[in-house]
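# step 3/5: fold
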Amino acid sequence: MNKANTLTMDPLIEGYLRYLDKVGRKTPRTIVDVRCTLRRAIAGLERVRPGVALWRLTLEDYLHWLEAERCGSTESSLAKYLSHVRGLLEYAWRSGRAERNVLDGFSLQHTLRRTVPKALNFDEAERLVQALTAPGPAARRDRLIILLLYGCGLRTSELCALDVAHVNRERRELVILKAKGDRPRAVPIPDALYTELLAYLLERGKRGPLFRTSTRKRRLRVNDVCEIVTAAATRAGLRAGVTPRTLRHSFATHLMDRGVDLAIIASLMGHRSPQETGVYLHVLPERPQAAVRTLPIGERS
């Protein structure tokens, strides 16, 4: 046996290994395997967050570590590492040493083959917003639709279901009641966008759907919104294939780029857990997290 693998680690970890032995009835070989994994995790995560205990790390930290481990590791090995660390975090949570198990419910199968979402870069987003300058009620409605998709990260169905009453003026939030998975949430409205929304509400009225068609005055449908986004992207000279979902992905990607916490983005997006938001981590190696540029939703040409 490698002597390094028997060296004493943090008392909490040693307590967990004794728990696996006495309570969990795990075999000596399994306990050695778990010890090796935890030592490997400590070494790898020390490069991500020096001096921070495993049970104090965030899901984002673990996503970085797993991404680094993918080089040279099989999927089965990664799944084993994840299982071993998750067990320790569960023990730490139940022992009162951690507020929660950040790996609870996290499935590697949802992330290993996930493709990078299509998103606009900052310049493209700015071009899109600046192209929305036509006069008239319909044009103002279309501009506001795109600003809400991009500036609040709404799903298309969520935007279509919005009523005037869902605008909380006191808190400057949108109340999303008809959300995916029946998980209502409140989304802050950026200041520049809120100003435009108030002006729109003066024309729109005090009740009913927030967005209606120009002719029959019925609530906008998903297809209507898709057509509005496609037309705006064409006017802005953007590449083909820009959809409402592209704007939602851009919202998350640009917030991630600016260093916003993964859990906060997950909450704003209405994800069930931060693991769903981990797909946006592709932006981190390419763009500085210290960027201070704001989303260009308040600018006009």
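# step 4/5: annotate
Confidence is low (pLDDT under 50) at residues 1-5, 285-294.
# step 5/5: archive (pending)
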